[in-house]
Amino acid sequence: MADAIYLEFDFKVEPLQPGSDVLMAELGAIGFESFMETDTGFLAYVAKEEYQESAFKGIGLLQGGFCSVSWVQREVPQQNWNKEWESNFEPIEVAGQCSVRAPFHNPRPDLDFDLIIEPKMSFGTGHHATTHLMIKQILGLNLQGKTVLDMGCGTGVLGILAEKKGASLVHAIDIDDWCFENSQENVSRNACTKTEVILGGAEKLGEQTYDLIIANINRNVLLNDITKYAQVLDKKGVLLLSGFYSEDIPMISEECAKHGLTLDHNFERNNWIGAKYVF
């Protein structure tokens, strides 16, 4: 894995929002693994062997529409990612309670939760609206002694926060090898002992039930897997969903309703939604 070659796309997007978020979602659906915002757009990374040129060219937003998009493409060795990331990554603060920072940033003892995340090629530093929204939702929950499932865990940041909030068991699952390894590193980095990282998808769900299920994935995956989430969610549990837009709420809610789940409330950020569903 250390010798893998990645393709870096430097996108310039005008206007910046919501164009950047829409394009990130489209790229994520065709295998792009990580994104880093810039002043004029964002950097996007995909393993060269996983890059699908036909799928990339099929993204409608690149052909025109409500925003203008241009890009420059280059190859970059995977081991150069940390240097690139360290030069651009700034710590963030959510709701005055939680910081998400890199190991080289100063600690934040003034906040309730100080999370140390080194994302490498994984998604989930809190900078993207969906991760920020999920952190905000989790901060509003009492997780003392609760069991938690973090689907599509990326860097593991949401599962790590859940353990820091008192969860007695966290299963963090991701289908991507790199996210699996990165989450393990970040779990260790944050001294979490109740979080188990699992490689795979919803097929890994079995007899274990959960008080809280977190799923920050794209809309189509959510629609496909909500049935499985409902099967392993405790009847007094909470389902937190993100990775979709405000206009997608009706179809997400319709699918949840098939399993007795109703929308409790949602937060919105740059047209992205973080929603809470309950039985």
UniProtKB/TrEMBL annotation:
SUPFAM superfamilies per record: S-adenosyl-L-methionine-dependent methyltransferases
CDD domains: AdoMet_MTases
GO biological process, one term: methylation
Keywords assigned: Cytoplasm, Methyltransferase, Ribonucleoprotein, Ribosomal protein, S-adenosyl-L-methionine, Transferase
Broad class of the protein's primary localization: cytoplasm
Source species, domain of life: Bacteria
Catalytic reaction annotation: L-lysyl-[protein] + 3 S-adenosyl-L-methionine = N(6),N(6),N(6)-trimethyl-L-lysyl-[protein] + 3 S-adenosyl-L-homocysteine + 3 H(+)
Residues annotated as binding S-adenosyl-L-methionine: T131, G152, D174, N216
InterPro entries (alphabetical): Ribosomal_L11_MeTrfase_PrmA (IPR050078), Ribosomal_PrmA_MeTrfase (IPR004498), SAM-dependent_MTases_sf (IPR029063)
Subcellular location: Cytoplasm
EC numbers, comma separated: 2.1.1.-
GO CC terms of this entry: cytoplasm; ribosome
MF annotations from Gene Ontology: protein methyltransferase activity
PANTHER family: ELECTRON TRANSFER FLAVOPROTEIN BETA SUBUNIT LYSINE METHYLTRANSFERASE (PTHR43648)
Its biological purpose: Methylates ribosomal protein L11.
Family to which this protein belongs: Belongs to the methyltransferase superfamily. PrmA family.
NCBIfam families: PRK00517.2-2
Identification of the protein by name: Ribosomal protein L11 methyltransferase
Source organism per UniProt: Sediminicola luteus
